[in-house]
Amino acid sequence: MLAVRESIRSWRFYDHFRTDADSPVRTAQIGTFSPVLHHDGSNLAAALQTIFELRSDEELARTIDDAFPGSSLYIESTAGGFSICLKQHGLLRPLSAKELSDGTLRYLLLTAALLTPRPPELLVLNEPETSLHPDLLPALARLIRAAARNTQIIVVSHAPVLIENILAESGCAHLHLIKSFGETTLESATLFNTPKWAWPAR
Questions:
Q1: In this predicted structure, what is the pLDDT of residue 4?
Q2: Quick one: CA dihedral 34, 15, 19, 162, positive or negative?
Q3: Is 60 a member of any domain?
Q4: What is the CATH classification number for the domain harbouring 58?
Q5: pLDDT (tens digit per residue) in 30-57
Q6: Which of 111, 126, 182, 187 is 20 to 30 Å apart from 100, CA to CA?
Q7: Could you give the number of structural domains in the chain?
Q8: Percent helix, strand and coil across the chain, each rounded to 5?
Q9: Is residue 131 part of a domain?
């Protein structure tokens, strides 16, 4: 029972990230070791810095360049606080978290969740495409596919482009929900024909 409890406690659910002007994500945060992104993303800068320090594969830098070609990310430390700085092609100075668009900030949050140095047994993303520019969806799909090699990921999405790109070369299961007369059901499912759940070995 202890093993089951600890396994369930490691599950992570990311349903909504605040990116409004008053969001804690847009302010400097305490610089502390953060291998796991908080459910609200409030430790984003610390989580990104931890990824920089613990991962030697430079996957974070590649992920940023994949989504924002020619851009680079670094964390500035001032008086014990961590702040996000994003250098983008064509701009004379880096942008702080306060200046980033909702979509860019949300992409950084998803990046921190998916590149975590401490992968959970289960990670659930609910509508990760929210506020993202359509051009970012293929890069997000590649990030999700890469993270799925280390953890079980469930993605709930209404974005066909994201779904198609996740399914490409991934071999993952795809369940399509349909709504009829106020009832949500699985496509092609009947009382005697329910989907076969194929759980991975890990």
A1: 83
A2: positive
A3: yes
A4: 3.40.50.300
A5: 999 999 999 999 999 999 999 999 987 8
A6: 126
A7: 1
A8: 35, 20, 45
A9: yes
